[in-house]
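Dear colleagues,

As part of the handover before I leave the project, I'm documenting each prediction I ran so the next person doesn't have to rerun anything. This entry is a single chain, and its sequence is reproduced below.
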Amino acid sequence: MANTKGVMRPLVNFPEDLWCDRFLSLPFNNSEFESYTKQVEAMKETVKDMLVVSITDPIEKMHLVNSLCRLGVSYHFENEIEEQLNHLFITLPKLLDDNDYDLHIVALVFQIFRFNGYKLPCGLFSKFQDGDGKFKEQVMGDVKGMVSLYEASHFRTNGEAILDEALDFTTKHLRSLANQSSTSPHLREYIENALFRPYHHSMQRLEAKLYISFYEKDESRNDILLNFAKYDFNRVQLLLQQELTVLSRTQDLKSKFPYARHRVVEGLFYALGVYFEPRYAAGRNMLVKQTCLVCFIDDAYEAYGLYEELQYFTDAIERFDISSMDELPTANQKKLYDTLLHVIGEAEYLVQKEGRSYAIPYTKDERSKLSVGGSMKKMSQHLMTRLAMTQILIGMEEADQNAFHWILNSNNKFLKALQICSRLYNDIVTNEDEEKRGFKTASMCYMKQYNVSRKEAIEAFRAKIGDAWKDINEGCMRPTMGVPMQVVRATLNYQRL
């Protein structure tokens, strides 16, 4: 508790902002940006020709699609990739059956199709198993195939026992391989990265940066793709830095809310994890502002406001009307409420300008649900996830009314699985700190109910997360109830953060 002007407030000693003011005046090198842009545009047509015309072998084409995705440049060719995969999804299964392709190729093809929403049957891995349903020992010598099978197994859905077995089998043997002195440093790093964070669960922009460095050391690399990826990554990086500078200036609210955490940098990191593509710049801008706003409100409840004051503020959020500001008891609350109205007003203007006014009622409904009951810490995780989904969809022109219905449908197993993962991931990371501050955590309740240790509780949570990912994967498979794949990917990216 802290005494501010004679009032005892529950202030929390949040750590200082790590970034300070370093991004307020970050210079933008326009000539460097134009140079990268020219290189990207020139090479883009060459890569497109490789994808559509010059490469005719289906397996080679799948390798190309995989490289485009892993290098973070597939967004340039969304329509072309979908057209190619639509055709290959019809022809490749028979080709895989009729030919004796190795484990790496089969797993790679499986992974690419599942990553893009095509449910290729997992039975194609049965030829690598013995009569007892165990993977044959000889596949352990195929390190590249083992890594590919490990990555492919993370696309499993409910009832796919062969992929459950594949995950256990590859995890065990890859861990052993990573610890062997005979394993090259480059291969060891690649294996350890996959074990730490499989590609399907990774933040795509970070994975692209990492994969560029791995791909550069690959003797079979395509130098055109490598250079294209480097130029594009640097170009997008400059754009994101410029966005950060603008946001740091407009969201510099430390003087207004000195008690709160100021997380503009973290907010943009979160937003680009959802959609990094340049065309979503306006969406990222709104998402960062709304994320910072949620943080301010959360801290107002937990780290500054008094119970009586917060009752007024909760009522004002539920009414969501400018006239409610006059009833707020403190100047600080009035500043916060004014900021809330301004940020939400910006979002509403954005969707109205795009002809998507239908999105406004969804966001208002989720905000009002979230405000009921006071402290956001007490809100159930599913409401926080629903609010995050509406904030994400606001910034996407592809998100039509059907997309909002889909993601907010109470019977949507995909959304329920996201909620489970968010809650359990959050508890795994924060449970000890939260308990020190006097909050009850899910792990604490689990330990008490089942009389187990904290480590055992965390292991149980990770198993539940693994099961939830099966529902997430199922929800990403086509057809997605008429919802554009861009929307599906963005909501999936939320889980990857």
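Residues 223-250 form the longest helix (28 residues). The CA atoms of residues 58 and 87 lie 10 Å apart.

All the best with the project,
I.
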